[in-house]
Amino acid sequence: PHSDLNAARLPIPPRPRHTIYIFYQKMNKKSTFFSKTVAFFIKNSYCTSKRRNNMTFELPPLPYEKNALEPFISANTLTFHYEKHHATYVKNLNDLIKGTPLENETLEDIILQTAKDSSKQAVYNNAAQVWNHTFYWHSLKSPHNDKINDPTLLGLIQRDFGSVENLKNVLKSTAMGQFGSGWCWLVLDHDMLKVVRTPNAENPLGTSKPLLCIDVWEHAYYLDYQNKRADYLDKVVEHLLNWDFAVKNLSL
Ligand code: MN
Questions:
Q1: Which of 119, 248, 139, 130 is nearest to 184 (CA)?
Q2: How many angstroms is it from 83 CA to the middle of ligand 1?
Q3: pLDDT band, very low/low/confident/very high, at 45 (cuts 50, 70, 90)
C-alpha cells in the first residue's frame, strides 16, 4: 500500500520561473480544485524546488517565521542555518550541474542517480543537503504539546516501539550516536517504522520512506547549545517535532 517517495512523485508541469509555493498561494485563492491539485503536488514534492527547461533550483521558503521555533531554536540559528547553510547548498548544486545532463533532472532524481557514483560525490552531497534541509524545516513546527492523534501513526509507534515515550528516547539516542555530522530519521521501511541515522549528507531516499528528520550537524545547534547536542535533541524531540508532517508522509 505504501509506494516509495520516488514512485509517488507526480510529473512536474511546465510553469513560469517562480516557485511552486507562489503558484500554490495564487491558485489557492482562486479555486478549490486547483488548490487541492496543487496541494497534492506539493505534498509529493516538498523538496523539488524546481523545474524544467534549465531552470535553476531555488531556495524554498521556510514554512514559518524565523522566530517560530523559539525559545528552543533561536531566530539567530534559523537565520544562519537557512540563509547561509541551506542557501549555499542550493547555490553549489546549481553551479555543479550547470551545463551537465543533470541540469534538467528533478532534485530527487539527481540524488538517486548520484548516490552510488563516487565521481559525483559533490553533486550528491549538495543535492541531498538541499533536500534534507527542506525536509527538516517541515519536520519542525512552533513549540506545542500536541499528542499524536492519528490512529495509523499511533498504531505503528505502539507496534514497533511500544510507546511514544520510547520512540522519543530512541530518536534522541540514535541522533546522539551519530559520530560527527549527519541526520536522524524516522522512516517507514517495508511497513516497519524505524529510526535510522545517516552520516554527512546521506538520506534514506531510495531505500525507505522518510517521515521526519533531525539535523545533527553542529551548525543546527551550536549557536544555541554549543557542544550540548543532547540538550538540542531533547528540546527538538519534546517540543518541536511536526507529527502532522509525519502523518502526511505516511499517507503518500
Ligand atoms: Mn543543517
A1: 139
A2: 11
A3: low
Half-sphere exposure of 134 (CA within 13 A, CB side): 25
Output the CA 81–ligand 1 centroid distance in Å: 6
Angle at the Cα of 146 from the Cα atoms of 86 and 167, rounded to 5 degrees? 75
CB atoms within 10 A of CB 71: 10
Q: Beta-strand (E) ranges in 110-191?
A: 182-189
Q: Distance (Å, rounded) from C-alpha 95 to C-alpha 162?
A: 46
Residue 63 makes CB contacts below 8 A (sequence gap 6+) with 137, 138, 141
**Distance, CA 220 to ligand 1 centroid (Å)?**
5
Residues near 113 by Cβ (< 8 Å), separated by ≥ 6?
102, 105, 120
- pLDDT, tens digit, for every residue of 102-148? 998 999 999 999 999 999 999 999 999 999 999 999 999 999 767 89
Residue 244: closest CA among 147, 155, 174, 171: 147
Q: What is the DSSP letter of 140?
A: B
DSSP category for residue 201: T
The pTM of the full predicted model, rounded to 2 decimals, is 0.81
Cα of 133 to ligand 1 centre, how many Å?
6
- What spacing in Å lies between the alpha carbon of 176 and ligand 1's midpoint? 16
Cα distance between residue 188 and residue 193, in whole Å: 5
Which has the higher per-residue pLDDT, 215 or 7?
A: 215
Compute the distance from residue 4 Cα to the ligand 1 centre, in Å.
Answer: 24
Which set of grid coordinates corresponds to residue 133?
534541509
